[in-house]
Structure formats: structure tokens, C-alpha cells
Inverse folding.
DNA sequence: CGGGCTCTTGACTCAGCTCAAGATTTGTGG
DNA sequence: CCACAAATCTTGAGCTGAGTCAAGAGCCCG
């Protein structure tokens, strides 16, 4: 558990005027929803966008905040989380480059969002984006698909939180990271782990200590190696996958 | 945990020819997505629909099954769940009258679906429904909204599964039931609990025994009364809500 | 009214938590 | 580039909430 530095400031996306370059050269263009737009549509979208930076640990949005802005993540990692009154925290997901931040239909965020390390966003006014969504059915469809993918991931995580052992959870976490940020289809992968042990714990429904012990265990077994604190080499992704799915001899 | 009667049969919605009455007199019309359709649209929808019954414990769909059909729940309760290879089960949600069953965009179900008691469905061919969705933006929007609501509920449940105590989970469960199937805004409610203790446990990430002990505890405290096994009277919904949210003295 | 469920309760166990040192790593300033 | 403080991470020892195993008690249905 982790009381966290939730020294909530104003709780709203603050817009900085900056807007670097055109959408056509954007690094996450292919990964983000913009991928479904034509060049002329992209140009219209560019007109209602602006860039914005959040530093390590900054709160980006509050739960239940009524917000007029949504965004694409250009770089960095965001944690989405919920809190209980006494400070218990559950991370409901992480956003990486190319992911969409914000409620797509309702005006309210369902979770808090905080920057894990420095984050760069491409921000849109929600009303204007919704106008575009009304005008371009393929854009709405794409956002619908994103929501569906997010839901599928949430259901998988419910299985993890409700029924998996600590060892299976940690293995699942690394597999998830490899699938989402690592090179595709590599039998072994060197991945960045931008979040703290305590964030990992809050994502897995465990304590920091248990996460640490399980990682040590994996190192001893030789399934992972750690060149540095926030770098991890998954030496046997297939075995990790088996543990994650609970097929192997339990623990 | 619960190995369940997953004696998977053919795993597909089987269509019976029956089709009782017109949509205009349908009992769940206002609750289901059909509510956004005009009379003439409703008539077109009716042309591609058929009714179907599943008995207690019948498997309605398998996880990852590629299915050509989706449905509205007309009556009864459906449990949606995931399994680990060794039989550990996590229920990801329940569907009640008016709810939509099926993947809205992809062709694959993310979970198993099983009838809790007798279930009546209004079944649609998925391709035909998608045609309607393409033709009627307000229908797509409505299904998008449903998906968003389902996602929000899943996020709340992640907090429950990751961070709440057994007592808080059981209280949350009853509050959820009251909110979804009970009369609205009643300070106390008499609700039907169609699912078994073991299903409740698989929804809450607990064992049957722990659920049973927690319910006994609530009875002793006087917060609930049980006229029968599957009937529950929530005598102090506000207090239950407080426990569910973890604000009260823990446990 | 009896046999098979499902549910409840009790006694004991254990996976993961808590509390408490240490050990690393990171960041900072001289 | 090094020293040193702060933060983060690891490890250990003991505790505990929920699980497991095992009786019973109710309930339902033929």
C-alpha cells in the first residue's frame, strides 16, 4: 500500500501554448487513434491540439474531475489509479506512448492519473474532439475499439487480482510489460520498467515487499536478470508466460 | 474456488425459431439499447431477432469462441467468468434483464457466459447488428456508452479485488446488487440474490466459506436479514455503503 | 420423508502482510 | 569525481486474515 504524494493541486490539465511540429511527423501517429485519419482530417485535428509536459509524480487528473480535455500520450508513462479513503491504492492501468488518456464519452474521469517519470501529452479540447467524432464515424469506431481493448485488459486483470498467486502476478506483470512496450515476438526481451516497486505492488494488489521477494525469486531461478533497477532482461519469456497463466506447478 | 460444471458443450448460441410478441411491448425495451431506436428502426431490428431460452447452469458461450450472435438479456441472470487452467475461477460480471451479451466490435467473447437460473435472450446475428450499427450512429453511440459503463464497473471491481477486505467486499456486493436490480433510492431494500455463495465468492475473489462467515457477521450486526436463502433484506443500505467504501473502522 | 444439494461453522494452516533493519541506488553539491 | 544524504529496494522474523479441511445443519425436490 502507498499513501502516495497525492497533494492534489488544481486537478486539471493545464495547457501550455507549445505545439511542436506537424502531426505527419508525430512519433506515435501510427499507434494513436490518429492513425485512422486522412491527411486533411489530421490537419483539422492538429488545429485543436496542443502539447503539454508533466514532471515525475505530478498529478494529471483527479478521479471524478469534470474535465474539458483529453489527450494522447506522446512519451512517458502514466499510472491510472483509485483510492480508498484510508489511502489504500489500486492502480487500474498504465498508459504508454500512443495511448489515449481521458473519458471518451462521459465528462468524468473514472480514476486519478499521475505521471510516472516525465510525460508529454498531445492535448485536445474534449468538446471539439467529440465534434470530430460525430463528423467522422471511423474516428468514433477507433475510440470504441480502444475502449474495448481497455475493457478486455481490465477483465484479465480481474482474474489476476482475484485468483492468481503472488508469483503468477509478478510474472503476468512482466509479460504484460513485454507485450506492451517491448519488441514484438522476441523470445527474450530487454525492457524498461519505469515504475517503482511500490507502483507494481499497487497494480498487482500486493505489497512492495512481496513484489521484491518474487523478483528476487525469479532472478534466482534465472528467468530474469536485472542490469539496473529499472531495466529488466526477461531471459525466458515463454516460461514466464506459463507461470503467468498458472499452468506450471503452482509456486 | 470452484471447478464448476464446465462440461463445455458446443459453445455456441443455438437458435430456436420462437419469437414472441413485438419489440414495442418488450419488457426490457427501455433498459436495453433498443431504447434509442425509433419505431421503424425497431421494426427492422425485430426482423433480425429471435428468442432463446437457457436453463440453469447451461453454458451460453465459451471464452475466445468466435460467435456470430449477440443478445439482449430479457430475463434471468448470466455470470461472465474466466478460468485458469487448474480450475480457479473469476467471475468478471453478472448480466441482468436489459443488459447486452456479446462482444460489440470484435468477433470474440472475452469470457465464458453461463446461465444462473433460467435465462431468456433476444438474439441477433452479429453481422446484421453491425450493419445496423454502421447505418445508425445513435445505436453505435449507445453501445459505446454501454461498453464505457461496463469498463467503469470493472475498474471499481479492480479496486475491490486488489485492496478491499473480505467484509468490505461482501458489503460492496450487496450494494452493487441493490443498485442494479433493487428499487432505486430506497434506504432499505429487499433484493433477490439469484447466485450461489460459491458464485459470490468467485466474483469477490474469496472462498465460499469466507463469504458465508461475512454474511453471518452482517446478520449478527443487524445490517441484513435473510427471509430465505436467495432473498436478502438490506436493513441499513447507508451503513453497508459506508463499509463498502472502506470509510468505517476497517472490518 | 429421505437423499443430495448448498450453506454454515469450527479448528487449524499458510501465503502474504507488517514491522524492522540493512543494502543499494540516486541525486546533489562541493 | 567523490562524499553523503535521501530515497528506494531487499531481506528477515514473526503475525494474521483468509484459505483449507472437515463436520454438521438446512433446504429443496422427488
Amino acid at each position: 500500500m502507498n499513501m502516495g504524494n497525492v497533494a492534489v493541486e488544481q486537478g486539471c490539465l493545464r495547457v501550455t501554448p507549445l505545439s511542436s511540429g506537424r502531426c505527419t511527423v508525430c512519433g506515435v501517429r501510427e499507434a494513436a487513434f490518429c492513425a485512422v485519419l486522412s491527411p486533411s482530417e489530421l490537419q483539422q485535428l492538429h488545429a485543436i491540439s496542443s502539447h503539454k509536459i508533466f514532471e515525475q509524480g505530478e498529478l494529471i487528473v483527479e478521479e471524478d474531475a469534470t474535465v474539458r480535455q483529453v489527450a494522447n500520450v506522446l512519451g512517458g508513462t502514466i499510472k491510472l489509479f483509485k483510492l480508498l479513503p484510508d489511502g489504500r491504492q489500486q492502480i487500474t492501468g498504465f498508459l504508454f506512448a500512443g495511448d489515449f488518456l481521458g473519458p471518451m464519452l462521459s465528462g468524468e474521469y473514472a480514476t486519478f492519473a499521475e505521471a510516472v517519470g516525465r510525460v508529454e501529452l498531445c492535448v485536445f479540447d474534449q468538446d471539439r474532439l467529440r465534434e470530430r467524432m460525430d463528423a467522422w464515424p471511423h474516428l468514433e469506431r477507433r475510440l470504441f475499439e480502444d475502449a474495448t481493448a481497455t475493457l478486455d485488459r481490465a477483465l484479465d486483470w480481474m482474474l489476476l487480482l482475484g485468483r492468481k498467486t503472488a508469483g503468477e502476478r509478478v510474472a503476468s506483470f512482466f509479460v504484460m510489460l513485454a507485450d506492451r512496450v517491448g519488441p514484438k515476438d522476441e523470445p527474450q526481451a530487454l525492457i524498461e520498467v519505469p515504475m517503482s516497486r511500490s507502483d507494481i505492488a499497487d497494480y498487482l494488489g500486493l505489497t512492495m515487499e512481496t513484489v521484491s521477494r518474487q523478483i528476487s525469486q525469479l532472478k534466482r531461478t534465472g528467468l530474469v536478470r536485472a542490469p539496473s533497477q529499472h531495466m529488466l532482461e526477461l531471459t525466458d519469456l515463454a516460461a514466464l508466460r506459463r507461470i503467468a497463466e498458472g499452468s506450471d506447478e503452482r509456486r
